[in-house]
UniProtKB/TrEMBL annotation:
Name of this chain's protein: Trophoblast glycoprotein 1b
Keywords recorded for this protein, A-Z: Leucine-rich repeat, Membrane, Repeat, Signal, Transmembrane, Transmembrane helix
Lineage summary: Eukaryota, Metazoa, Chordata, Craniata, Vertebrata
Gene that produces this protein: tpbg1b
Signal peptide residue numbers: 1-21
GO biological-process terms attached to the record: anterior/posterior pattern specification; convergent extension involved in axis elongation; dorsal/ventral axis specification; negative regulation of canonical Wnt signaling pathway; positive regulation of non-canonical Wnt signaling pathway
Ranges of residues in domain LRRCT: 240-292
A Pfam family annotated for this UniProt entry: LRR_8
Domain of life of the organism encoding this protein: Eukaryota
UniProt keyword Mitochondrion, yes or no: no
Stretches assigned to the LRRNT domain: 22-56
Example of a GO cellular component annotation carried by this entry: plasma membrane
Amino acid sequence: MLELAQRMVLCALVCSIYARASCPPGCECSEAAHTVKCVSKELQTIPKGIPGYTRNLFITGNNISRIGPTCFQGLDNVTNLSLSNNRITEVESNTFADLRALRYLDLSSNQLTAIHQEGFSMHNHTLRELNLSRALYNHSAVTDLAAALRQASLGSLQGLDLSGNGLVLLPPRTFSRLGQLRRLQLSNNSLVAIHNATFWGLQRLEELDLTFNALKGVPEEGLRELDALPVASGLLLGDNPFDCTCAIEPLALWLNRSRDRVRDTEAPSCASPATMRNVTLLAAATLTLRCYQRAAGADLALQTSYVFLGLVLGLVGLVFLFVLYLNRKGIKKRVNEARDACREVWEGYHYRYEIDSDPRLSQVSSNADA
């Protein structure tokens, strides 16, 4: 019995030594929790020899510049992969293709400048959550991401976080292949407009966060885009610098009739003009109607002015014609005198022309003058 106990202790010791030996340098491995952590170890590349039992893999706070398809080979059991804050600039094609069980991918707080068109292509439709907050470094990365999302097989993706990326405009149909997406985070960007086809294809989207952007208004085209999200009931529009001039009326009226879809209906408020600052859009809906009434009154006044001007000009014309009628005899006499004067001048020029054209008449005229 004692010998059996010694053997068991020896096996446990050997297994623990083997487990520690199989853990990559700079990482902490827990077979019981199926977790490997390589945190803030100044790693330059994804470490080799990560145990095959790993389900939760945290490689964060390092100096890894690029990741490719050879980085995660043999890790079929990984379901949660966090690569945040690694200064990653490039994602190569098929980087995550071997992660056949991957459900959650975190690439937040990186410096992505290049995402290959097949950077997010995966063999299985397993990925549910993709975190790219504060991950895109410039506009070219946004264009690359749009192309990668349209190319990737992410038909099961349910959550996408693009917050904090300085986005100004989203390319049309960026999310057209994400038919199962339910949550889209676009907060803390610089979005200035919602255009046609911005959210095309998101038929199952339930939550859309547009807070802390640069929206001064949403035109009717953008409102139709929001109305095209059939099941969305968690829209957030607060903390945008809305310009509450007459053009805000379509958005204000839409907000009033969409209370069941907009979660923060009381939050969207006016940032300008100064007289409207901090007034909610719900209240601005009635105020802007007055603006349009004033505009309609101004149009009516302008039309009245045109009618009055036409009447005045017509009256002046009648007076002018009446004056001509009263002076018709004098005018006729002056016209006849002017006609006779012109005729005499014309005959004089004609006679002179005949003399100049005939040398004999010219000589007779000269002798007569002598």
